[in-house]
Amino acid sequence: MAAHPVSPLAPKSYPDLPEIAGVRFATAEAGIKYKNRTDVLLMAFDEGTTAAGVLTRSKCSSAAVDWCRANLPGGVARGLVVNSGNANAFTGAKGKQSVAMTADYAAKALGCSPSEVFLASTGVIGEPLSADKFAGVLDEAATRMAETPWIEPAKAIMTTDTFPKLSGAILEIDGVEVKINGIAKGSGMIAPDMATMLSFVVTDMPIAAPVLQALLARHVDTSFNAITVDSDTSTSDTLLAFATGKAGVEPIQSVDDPRAETFGEALRDVLLDLAIQVVRDGEGATKQVSVHVEGATSDASAFRIAKSIADSPLVKTAIAGEDANWGRVVMAVGKAGEPADRDKLAIRFGDLLVAKDGERAPGYDEAATSAYMKGEELELTVSLGLGEGRATVYTCDLTHGYITINGDYRS
Amino acid sequence: MAAHPVSPLAPKSYPDLPEIAGVRFATAEAGIKYKNRTDVLLMAFDEGTTAAGVLTRSKCSSAAVDWCRANLPGGVARGLVVNSGNANAFTGAKGKQSVAMTADYAAKALGCSPSEVFLASTGVIGEPLSADKFAGVLDEAATRMAETPWIEPAKAIMTTDTFPKLSGAILEIDGVEVKINGIAKGSGMIAPDMATMLSFVVTDMPIAAPVLQALLARHVDTSFNAITVDSDTSTSDTLLAFATGKAGVEPIQSVDDPRAETFGEALRDVLLDLAIQVVRDGEGATKQVSVHVEGATSDASAFRIAKSIADSPLVKTAIAGEDANWGRVVMAVGKAGEPADRDKLAIRFGDLLVAKDGERAPGYDEAATSAYMKGEELELTVSLGLGEGRATVYTCDLTHGYITINGDYRS
């Protein structure tokens, strides 16, 4: 299925996510760009399903993103259509028309209103995407909807991904088992300016749409918005959450309900797990890197410094080369434009202190640091010594694989 | 000399810059990092030489940058010492001490005050640089100062550069021939947040330091500050200009002197030529790209959009792959966070209109566009259709060469 070798950071196995009452789906081969693989996902939600979402802030957002933005305030969902291979972005009036027609087809197939159908498209930008591609495909898919296996929708939405991304959580609320399932896709054009590319989360928890929206917005900041592969932000970034309400507990109607906290934590675990999987499938990635910044003047400042480090091509190529080049971390701190005092700066690679008080740490051990760099999961920590602000950004290394994948994506 | 193959964009020949009265120099092998090549430049200026400079805005600036910042307000210069192989950045109190001692050595060798000596260092960050390296070397160099050939200082300051960078201008002011010579180094860690890496410009024009400073600041914005190789900003970026005043015309004492405009234009030509050479020697570069943005709400907004495009790894890898992937240009416009209206956007590759009114241009010719991408110098133009703001940013493509060079720079 994958045009490129599977990421060395791919999981050894995939979680066997359970069915979630009120959610059924089918995938299909529409031949939009890829051959001999599924490229369309149709998902149906029972009546009463609430919806929330976080969409790209790109000024050139795709037609599907515009569609979701228009329908999210309704807060209800009955269907979801996702295709891979064509982003339907920068396709003008044709793209807008295509999106409306696709929602119509799906609404007819599912027996609901078009405004209750959410849409997402991912793939090449600027190629018109004809709604004709979907007409028969959606009707046929609607005849064979199932509740499992969840790996199928995860596969259908892949583009340059080398493995499908799934995550789930089961928690207990009021003595009742509540489930959260999530899938995501994304490998390049990944930057933490918004939710990355596509991710869909469903739960059987009864929860009002505004509460679901608030929890999603809160937890996206430390998950999908805290990852970067290449600092490029997609036109199509879409994270949608759907709650069928079938779990048989009293609904959460307010963020002040103490159960919102419990549910939010589980939601956050699923989002972060999916976000990390996106980084581990970053185009050409051979290492996963967590960049921690502490002691900043604020959390926001810490985040911008962490992002400056995680986005730096020089830091990322050094990591690819297993070179403990902490001088480039200094450079990236310096260019971030945030408050920093060179002479208070300390840097750790894992537990190894490499720099302190603005110079190489006394007792710096090049051999130990180089050995640490050979690991597959690396932790870089920068201590600014200025305040209490802290943040973590997750990224991967920058390798020949990234160049190869992106030098010939369209051809 | 170069550890990596010479850039395919290297010039076929180098200008034979003339002597400039009041300027002499020598280069030497101090063995700081490189073997069998010069790595130290000592330059001497006659009494009466004015100085101006633009330095990195990095919060982690090098000891040499701090030294220059402290001495620039004096506005006079008698000497310049530059070394390659070690940036003396993030070297704490030792670095500060080393810089003061180096200035002392140079002042003794040249017979001037240490505060009249300017310093610049480039190379690895975080390695202590002992001033002992310079003691005998500077004394010896001072015994064999010459006025030419200018290619020698250009070579001595190279690091990962694959060719020396020189540029000059001869202009007539008040019927007298006035000369400007410039050299630069830089190949990676290049971003337009400040003058890039190192560049030194000398002229025999009599010009007051504040006027020289004003002209330098004005013209750096559209030259060194308008280039990017990898979006990474160095800790050591330094652009210094020295004016010996030997040209035998009345000095320029004010920016309102109409001759300041004439001189400034020639200065700008030299700065831009040097800046373009840095891009053409960008690590791994195989293509030079000019990104023009027009129709923005302001020049500053146009610049930020142009930089977003020029910094985008996805745009740069597509160019490396000779892929006319204008959808990635749309993406980079969208992520810039500046005012843009998708449905008014037009994009040209060279003279070829590829997108218009927010979608693929009618009559878009994939074959012609692909053929254009095979060129060595490319022009991308984005028209926003919102206002009169315009800017140009110069960059290169992102290739396997960049990864190779930066994956093992220290080792």
From TrEMBL, chains A, B:
It is found in: Cytoplasm. The record marks T122, G123 as: Involved in the stabilization of negative charge on the oxyanion by the formation of the oxyanion hole. One of its GO terms (molecular function) is L-glutamate N-acetyltransferase activity, acting on acetyl-L-ornithine as donor. Pfam families: ArgJ. It catalyses: L-glutamate + acetyl-CoA = N-acetyl-L-glutamate + CoA + H(+); N(2)-acetyl-L-ornithine + L-glutamate = N-acetyl-L-glutamate + L-ornithine. The active site is at T196 (nucleophile). Keywords: Acyltransferase, Amino-acid biosynthesis, Arginine biosynthesis, Autocatalytic cleavage, Cytoplasm, Multifunctional enzyme, Transferase. The record marks A195, T196 as: Cleavage. Substrate binds at T159, K185, T196, E283, N406, S411. Its EC number is 2.3.1.35, 2.3.1.1. It comes from the Bacteria. Pathway: Amino-acid biosynthesis; L-arginine biosynthesis; N(2)-acetyl-L-ornithine from L-glutamate: step 1/4; Amino-acid biosynthesis; L-arginine biosynthesis; L-ornithine and N-acetyl-L-glutamate from L-glutamate and N(2)-acetyl-L-ornithine (cyclic): step 1/1. Catalyzes two activities which are involved in the cyclic version of arginine biosynthesis: the synthesis of N-acetylglutamate from glutamate and acetyl-CoA as the acetyl donor, and of ornithine by transacetylation between N(2)-acetylornithine and glutamate. Belongs to the ArgJ family. Heterotetramer of two alpha and two beta chains. This is Arginine biosynthesis bifunctional protein ArgJ. The gene is argJ.
